[in-house]
Amino acid sequence: MTVEQFEILLEKYSDSIFGFCCHLTGSTDSAEDLYQQAIFKAFSMIQKINCEDTDENSYKSARNYIIGIAVRLYKNEIRKKMNNVLVHDSKIIDSIKSEQDIESDFMENDIKSAVRQTVANLSYKFRAVVYMFYFADMSIDEISCNLKIPKGTVKSRLNRARAIIKKDMEEKGYDRY
Fold this sequence. Notes:
Layout: H1 3-25, H2 28-44, H3 56-83, H4 102-120, H5 124-135, H6 140-147, H7 151-171
Helix pairs in contact: 1-2, 1-3, 1-5, 2-3, 3-6, 4-7, 5-7, 6-7
């Protein structure tokens, strides 16, 4: 990958990569640090990023490579914190305002908040797969490659995470989950 291609990649996908970092860390400050570290690491390894074509799939693949870097950096950070007996508290606050129907928006935000809180409380191995699959729109194969785990493990973790989320949502009184 050339420097010009890297710049194009960041123009297209910097928001997506930063958004993934926000979901993964649960905090804007931590996400900014993780994003910068991931971009710096990717830039230092620019020769290893395969982007021979200028088509959308090549750039998407490069984006997924950077997301994989962010996941590994985040895992390493968690390990350091665990070794130092620090507790990582990750909560996501989301407030979406709509002018159409306040009551419906309130209910929708309540549900979204409950789901995000449930996902944030999942263990890292489930949370990472959920974020990669649903928020970064990565396929099972891409997640498997980035996390360096078998596809069956990815599917199993997604299935178990869905079951945990469903059970927690039902316990909170949301019957549709």
